[in-house]
Design brief:
Two copies of one chain form a homodimer.
Chain A: E1 6-7, E2 19-26, E3 30-37, E4 53-60, E5 63-67, E6 72-75, E7 79-83, E8 89-94, E9 98-105
Antiparallel strand pairs in A: 2-3, 3-9, 4-7, 4-9, 5-6, 5-8
């Protein structure tokens, strides 16, 4: 068999895109995504409220997450958090080029 | 609630350890691990033969994986592969300090 190698830092999306997601692995229980955020903020008043646990790491750049209740979590390169399902959160702000790796755990 | 932030590059294992694994997230369907490999090779003749799909990325350093049949896969920073369950493989060699992120998908 031939094993396919891809690189997280190639084939980045156009600069015009403020947030872009690429699926790297997916089955019924888990999805692994690369997310490229360019000076991205979630829309005002928008909260993610997900059915999945999400484990997420900042691979390049920096970002600040906001959690319901006002807690701000500043993340730099290598920082990772687990966001349990239904914990409401939003992206307050990212750097001009932030690359995340997110693992969404469905069950 | 308080969200806990950890960093992938802190609390690295002692230099005496040639391979060290740390669980970052685990439930019944998935396990996310940091693996630190210091000039590591799998023992001669040893093959991983796993019940899980494994998605793995080299976050720091370089490494070469060997697959049954002789295929060698050289991986540098940012390179990622999916190793389907029961595809036999071993670590041929890593750099003096290679940091992997591995997602093991159990179902």
């Amino acid at each position: 068999m031939t094993i396919r190698v891809d690189n997280l830092f190639t084939n980045l999306p156009e600069r015009s895109s403020s947030e872009h997601s690429l699926s790297l692995y997916e089955n019924r229980s888990v999805k692994i995504e690369r997310i490229v955020s360019r000076s991205y903020s979630s829309p005002p008043g928008f909260w993610y409220d997900q059915d999945e646990d999400e484990w997420v790491i900042v691979v390049r750049g920096e970002a600040t997450l906001e959690f319901e209740g006002g807690e701000l979590v500043r993340m730099k390169e290598g920082d990772h958090v687990t966001i349990p399902r239904h914990v409401k959160h939003r992206v307050q702000q990212t750097d001009p080029k932030t690359i995340w790796l997110a693992v969404r755990v469905r069950c």
